[in-house]
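In the previous chapter we treated chains in isolation. Here, by contrast, the input contains two separate entities that must be folded as one system, with a combined length of 580 residues.
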Amino acid sequence: MGELLTREREEIFVKFLEHMNLTAIAVGIGLLIAFPLAVYAYRHKRFYGPLTGVSGLLYTIPSLALFAFLTPYTGLSMVTAEIGLISYTLLILIRNIVSGLDGVPEDVRESARGMGLSPRQLLWQVELPLALPVIFAGVRLATVTVIGLVTVTSLITYGGLGAFILEGIQKLDTSLAVLGGVLSLVLAVLVDAAFRRAERIATPWAQSRPVSEMT
Amino acid sequence: MISFDRVSKRFSGTRDAAVDDLTFEIERGETVVLVGPSGCGKTTTMKMINRLIEPSAGRIIVNGTDVLEQDPVRLRRNIGYVIQSIGLMPHRTIAENIATVPKLIGWDEPKINRRVHELVEVFELDTNMLSRYPSELSGGQRQRVGVARALAADPPVMLMDEPFGAVDPIVRERLQDQFRDIQARLRKTIVFVTHDIDEAIKMADRIVILNLGAAIEQYDSPAEILRNPASDFVSRFVGAERGLKRLALVKVSDIDVEDGPVVRLSDTRETALRVMEDSATPWATVIDADGRLEGWVDAAMLANAPNVGSVSARKYSAYVTAESSLRNALDAIVTSRTQVAVVADDSNHYRGILSLERISKEIIT
């Protein structure tokens, strides 16, 4: 294994970056799509059911089947890979953004409105900051999910560390396949930890504990 | 300052109007408490003033302008707003919470800072608290921050929906006293909603007692409502102990105290006994040469004493000051051996006594 690591050092680095890149694009675009939809659904509750229905449907399509559907149109391209990856993030992101916003205490919302915050100020200064922990959790979950899924997109040549797994299977080289698996696992664990840390820094108020009861 | 002109509110899907054809006026600088059973429409009435609820009919004029003709966001920045659960923003520090409205209306940083520190002083908060988050404060502290925040931009009008409802009775009483003192200086126009008649009596210049549909049963000063309930509904709502509640509104300084039997330390036994005889009481109050209260003596205590100063006077267990309420005085009467309340000033100078007869005269008239 040690010998394998040295031999493939450069390749590992390249694939590692590719893996992160594919993941970041998927989660980034996923957020860009999910965010406005989720805010709209939060304000217009009737829209929430159909929205989660559609994104839930996307979520349940087996990934291999989805790529098979897409290749006739978009080929063995990064676009194909990303469409698949993005569609898996939507349900998680939309659900968490909406439930984060729903969790904002009604009294905080009412007093903010009563003080004269406009609907836009209410969203950006009160509701989103307070929903941040739940939104963060969604982004973290979506990211870790995508990191796992990227290994599957190696089938359409854009697979980051998944390329090692695929090559390992094709060459019946177990250690190569294990290398790909372990590395993507390491990536997922690192990213998960980084997100947890970022979340703590971004929401200092959620960490503080009540001090002594005094009046 | 605030006037309701035939205002109604009907919520969709309900048969009866929450507020039905309500007309009343609130003067500048007065505290008007809306009180009534739950569901009477008191909160709805209040929330129509800052348009958190839109009236279905009628006009509400605040400071000369129809609220419906103003942008609701701008309108609200001019009206302080406090709700029972306060609703401090948990992700913002206490200083940031207090600064909310000044920031919205574009005050510069130094001005906001000065104002925040001013309010900290007024509300007797701790400066160290400013950098903390709301979850780190006690209920009573949060409540005070909530009221301070509502006052931050110095709005002429304040709406307060059970602002002291979420804390225990002891803290509540302290907050009420504190706010009453602050209001005495600021003279804001305040609309205050509560279901607690005692709180209404304590805080109000005038009380509006509302029945279902925000129908006004009586709109009067607390004393007048207690003396003269306008309907059965009002007397039932005001409840038992109407007389006692009225006593709580009258200060000792509002009525004439009686002189009572008084002897000085230097008086002889004979003089003291004559004083008791003249006033037909078996005891007399003892004061020193400067008129300070020493206590009381009776004939038995003086039996072998040449003068009053040679025996040690019994202390009064309780006395009242000019600022005390007659209710406090009544309490002092029923708990004292002498059956009177002794009135002294802050530096313990004797002022006179109040008897049960004197106080019951106050209840009857």
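Residues 18 and 118 of chain A are 43 Å apart (CA to CA). Chain A has one domain: 2-198. Compare these points with the single-chain example from earlier in the chapter.
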